[in-house]
Amino acid sequence: MGGGKVTLLAALFLAGCNMDRAAHTAPQASEVRAEVVDASYRARLQAASCADAEDFTPAQTIEITATPLDPETFDGVKLDGLSFHGGWHLTSDEPNFGGLSGLAVAADDTLLAVSDNGAFVWINMADQGPSGLGAIAYMRNQRGRLLDGKSSADAEGLELAGGLALVSFERDHRVLAFDLERCGASANGTLVARIPEAPFGAGRKIPENNGPEALALYPADELVAGLEAPDGDRAIVGRIGEGTVDFSERL
Question: Under DSSP, is residue 35 helix (H, G, I), strand (E, B) or coil?
């Protein structure tokens, strides 16, 4: 998608919230999901990403224009297990807005998204749709420097765990953790796991732009990633541990 534009398809109608400090930090995951990533490991990731809560930097507030999509546009479109409930075409004067991939819903009904430009984008939801306010913050590496170039900034998957935003990347295939709750836009991307070019079980090198598109927490205390590159007609799913990956699963 080009900068400044994105189409948002929502499977849920969401209630409103205020774009206060909470909307400029990581949305709070549910109590269940907060426990999925081991507490001691989560604490180490948080400490590496944000050493001092006083370093908190708010995200940049942006205006977002939301145009509802015509439901008739999707007549005849069949997606197993999904129903179209609402959608919007979003635009912003912010040049780096757009290219949104992973989406996560906050407890305060803010949507957090990641873009393939290496940014976090907050979208305020009110009256069952985007309210016109949002925020953007650019991702940083472990040294606190902004991610530079498509090879390092191509964020795709997003999951939340106890204040941490977990993000998967293509090209440089890896998963990083950001403590947005305590440090906001100052949070450093702490390495969770680096995915080898030819991970065990994949049988071949992962194409540059076919990496870990999907990222999710399973109830069985597992962080899993799905590769865009299939194995024949089956999806490749990897279990990600503390610095480890196993892509032997096929679905």
Answer: coil
